[in-house]
Amino acid sequence: MDKKLTYADSGVDIHQEESTIGNLTGDMTYTREGLGAPMTSIGHYAGLMDFGDFALAMATDGVGSKVLIANEMEKWDTMGIDCIAMNVNDLIAIGAEPISFVDYLAIEKHSDEFARQIGVGLAKGAEISRMSILGGETATLPEIVKGFDLAGTCLGKVDKDAIITGEKVAEGDVLVGVPSSGVHSNGYTLVRKIIENSKYSYHDPLPYDSSRTIGEELLTPTRIYMEVLDTIRKCEVHGLAHITGSGLLKLRRVSELGFDITDPIEPPEIFRFLQKEGNVEELEMYRTFNMGMGFLLIVPPHEAQKVAEIVDGKIVGRITEKDIRVKDLIIE
């Protein structure tokens, strides 16, 4: 493959998405007052509402086009973990504890075994997240959905004095990265384009690990970062970032200051395999994928080593005046 692939080439333009979101939310100006009044503007990882002595947090997300690989492999038992992880990790990124979840499953047709496997994953994700699934909705939409789509909404709570929005982030703060379990649930439109235009299929063994197929590796479920929630109760933390779609550009949800990542976590081999097969530039990799770092904590220097040990993470850099940098790359 001679052409250098980008996320936009595969059909997902993150800058166009920003424009769409701006147009979508532009007229959302009405806000409730009193109990339930919003405490954050649209655009952070999760929305917060005033609920007296504490705040309620809400997030909603889905698995995305990773479901197409699950269909190809006929393996759906991790999709529920992915769905819950994408929501729970966004709650954690604002300091909130997940307490309940509802799912939305849209399907083309019914299958008992498929439904059982989706339920297995949802149950496991809820158990890891220490929360209940209260219900959900299943819709049969053969004229709209080809295959299935799985999404959900998560409710959490946080004491008002424990909310972490990033406003305390300051120059000199230390960045602690926490490893990902792999590609997680983002960038799969580009992932699929790479594999489906290569000499490989999802059923082929990984070139670097013949004990697993490419499809099995790509279906590794998203890590749920509950240890981060436990850490912020013990340590001073100024900011949190869940690294998902658009990669390190997600750090702009936390602060407009600079993030100088001088010693990044070494990306798992799956990322280098995808990069090579798709002829994807390093800059594009870091603004599309998590590249081995699924979560980031921003802490004062005196807490850095302690935090890194608790989350089994790594000090990867510092907060600076401007720019998001990974070694000599500027992510923009």
Automatic annotation (TrEMBL):
<dbReference type="InterPro" id="IPR036921">
    <property type="entry name" value="PurM-like_N_sf"/>
</dbReference>
<keyword id="KW-0547">Nucleotide-binding</keyword>
<keyword id="KW-0067">ATP-binding</keyword>
<keyword id="KW-0963">Cytoplasm</keyword>
<comment type="similarity">
    <text>Belongs to the AIR synthase family.</text>
</comment>
<dbReference type="GO" id="GO:0004641">
    <property type="term" value="F:phosphoribosylformylglycinamidine cyclo-ligase activity"/>
</dbReference>
<keyword id="KW-0658">Purine biosynthesis</keyword>
<dbReference type="InterPro" id="IPR016188">
    <property type="entry name" value="PurM-like_N"/>
</dbReference>
<dbReference type="InterPro" id="IPR010918">
    <property type="entry name" value="PurM-like_C_dom"/>
</dbReference>
<feature type="domain" description="PurM-like N-terminal">
    <location>
        <begin position="45"/>
        <end position="158"/>
    </location>
</feature>
<feature type="domain" description="PurM-like C-terminal">
    <location>
        <begin position="171"/>
        <end position="323"/>
    </location>
</feature>
<dbReference type="GO" id="GO:0005829">
    <property type="term" value="C:cytosol"/>
</dbReference>
<dbReference type="GO" id="GO:0004637">
    <property type="term" value="F:phosphoribosylamine-glycine ligase activity"/>
</dbReference>
<dbReference type="Pfam" id="PF02769">
    <property type="entry name" value="AIRS_C"/>
</dbReference>
<dbReference type="InterPro" id="IPR004733">
    <property type="entry name" value="PurM_cligase"/>
</dbReference>
<keyword id="KW-0436">Ligase</keyword>
<dbReference type="Pfam" id="PF00586">
    <property type="entry name" value="AIRS"/>
</dbReference>
<dbReference type="GO" id="GO:0006189">
    <property type="term" value="P:'de novo' IMP biosynthetic process"/>
</dbReference>
<comment type="pathway">
    <text>Purine metabolism; IMP biosynthesis via de novo pathway; 5-amino-1-(5-phospho-D-ribosyl)imidazole from N(2)-formyl-N(1)-(5-phospho-D-ribosyl)glycinamide: step 2/2.</text>
</comment>
<dbReference type="GO" id="GO:0046084">
    <property type="term" value="P:adenine biosynthetic process"/>
</dbReference>
<protein>
    <recommendedName>
        <fullName>Phosphoribosylformylglycinamidine cyclo-ligase</fullName>
        <ecNumber>6.3.3.1</ecNumber>
    </recommendedName>
</protein>
<dbReference type="InterPro" id="IPR036676">
    <property type="entry name" value="PurM-like_C_sf"/>
</dbReference>
<dbReference type="GO" id="GO:0005524">
    <property type="term" value="F:ATP binding"/>
</dbReference>
